[in-house]
Amino acid sequence: MTSSTRTLSQSPRPNKTRFLTPEQVAMVDEALRALGDFGEVRLVVEKGRLRFIVTQKSYDALKWHPGAIEAVE
Description:
- This protein is an alpha+beta fold.
- The chain has 1 helix and 2 strands; from the N terminus they run H-E-E.
- It is elongated.
């Protein structure tokens, strides 16, 4: 499987989204809010359609205290 990565600075800036529905935009917004101060949201697009939203949450090691990192079930 071949994949390509483009950052926002490399992407064209259309006035409206080309393939995201309003529901998908809301999903991306929700993912961004859930990450807090540190994290990353990646959109996986296959055949011109959004297939997955991948989130990665990071923690500030200098501000860590016991119990600060919640378990994932």
